[in-house]
Amino acid sequence: MRQFRRRKGPLTKNSFLTMSSVAALAVSFTVSAPVRAADDATIQKWITEFQPSTLSKDDQKKELEWFAKAAEPFKGMEINVVSETITTHEYESQTLAKAFSELTGIKLKHDIIQEGDVVEKLQTQMQSGKNVYDGWINDSDLIGTHFRYGQTIALSDYMTGEGKDVTDPMLDVNDFIGKSFGTAPDGKLYQLPDQQFANLYWFRYDWFTNPDYKAKFKAKYGYELGVPVNWSAYEDIAEFFTNDIKEINGVKVYGHMDYGKKDPSLGWRFTDAWLSMAGNGDKGIPNGLPVDEWGIRMEGCRPVGSSVERGGDTNGPAAVYSITKYLEWMKKYAPPQAQGMTFSESGPVPAQGNIAQQMFWYTAFTADMVKPGIAVMNADGTPKWRMAPSPHGSYWKEGMKLGYQDAGSLTLLKSTPADRRKAAWLYLQFIVSKTVSLKKSHVGLTFIRESDIWDKSFTERAPKLGGLIEFYRSPARVQWTPTGNNVPDYPKLAQLWWQNIGDASSGAKTPQQAMDALAAAQDSVMERLEKSGVQKECGPKLHKKESAEYWFAKAQKDGTIAPQRKLANEKPKGETVDYDTLIKSWPATPPKRAEAK
């Protein structure tokens, strides 16, 4: 992977999630299409490209004909859409934009730029009211921002109202697995997923099934070497491979991998649900209520605080435990250079072959982790590794979210002129349509539709993808979700994390001091939002400060969880599950509605 220097603005994880060489910070594809209705030959050409598909070729033809007809009023228009730089969006900008232009006569320019730049340009349009882009693909992490500022189109209203004539009758919104991610407290859909990837547990399946290692592990710990269910088992496994096995085939091995440099990339290491994995926040899917995985309490639709003294959990015992374990494991079990690495530098390390497991691993790395000839691949094209659901910390309770899922999502702004918005909406639907979605899923491995996940083409490909398909077909999948509605201004709050947690990583502050500072900083931002009145009905309204004990007792009285008191024992007995047994326990057939073609 290459790390790019940016001019300004927040640096975000998806800037680094492609290992392909990108020659410039911004890549755009302008397609000059003939201003005419798509003829049958053009439609047939693109149907050939969009294989496999969950639709029959006849139904693909019907859907493409619908797009051509619906686009007739907008022929010759030049429409601008933007997304971040990952493999999925490269396919859209290079192939799908060209197809759309040839089919509709709309000239489509699809820019792919760093995610931080996407957020920066989005803020510019929202603040100035000037139309920068006609359509946006931005993380659903911004859902709390979008619905509170009142500048984003509610798609559920748009599809049945102003945009009804340009809404694909075959779109099938209920087929999208992340529909809840873009749904606000008012029940309306503001963002529709275009790509998704999860943050899972990664491990060396060949080492974990080695009879000698299994016998030695059980003799020492009293339970089986397997996929860790809790953090205690993860820690035991990290200790075992680092200090008991030590070397495999003459190479020093480590039981853990992470990164710790005080750098913007350290921020999403934690905002991407690390605290929830430990047990921070409350029960609730997709996000805890009233307290979410950032530790922000929301009552009704209003954020009321993130510090424990305001009823939040950002600096509570569960959050401090999560930072403590992060630092302890990196020091004890990761390669020495991990402490000084950024996200982009640490990402390729597991593929080099000397890492036993990694709890914080993005499935967007899958395509690069299955390349032939690398150290973690077998000669027959199957991986030596697997991915599985992540273990949970000692504060975690059943019903909480358990990990993070990125969801780059379709978004329209009110400041875009109505005709341009309609033309952009046609393109945004096209790139998630059933006609193209399955092929796009095979290219980028970032699933958005239930029907794609269960398609026979992925049943056939599953053995070479290390558990990716099994996870997305599993009931566990719903516990992996993006940042949610409790976060009132994602750009302003997200940048606080790397600065404050970086102080703990560098040793300048204790975990408690770092989280106290982060909680105070988040409350300060929300206080400014409250005083400004810029977010009207659902903006922050901070609670007055009370003692921690007041909030511990209130949670107990109310039957909620956060904030939790400090546990007397933060390391219960380790628990594991056999990987092959686990995946056999999951459903072997899709939900009934996804069976139909």
From TrEMBL:
Keywords attached to this entry: Cell membrane, Lipoprotein, Membrane, Palmitate, Periplasm, Signal
Taxonomic superkingdom: Bacteria
GO CC annotations, alphabetized: periplasmic space
GO molecular function list: transmembrane transporter activity
Protein's UniProt keywords contain Membrane: yes
Major location (coarse): periplasm
Annotated SUPFAM superfamilies: Periplasmic binding protein-like II
InterPro entries in the cross-refs: ABC_tp_sb (IPR014597), Bact_solute-bd_prot1 (IPR050490), SBP (IPR006059)
Cellular localisation: Periplasm
Signal peptide bounds: 1-37
Signal as UniProt keyword: yes
Pfam families assigned: SBP_bac_8
Family statement: Belongs to the bacterial solute-binding protein 1 family.
Record's protein name: Carbohydrate ABC transporter substrate-binding protein (CUT1 family)
Lineage: Bacteria, Pseudomonadati, Pseudomonadota, Alphaproteobacteria, Hyphomicrobiales
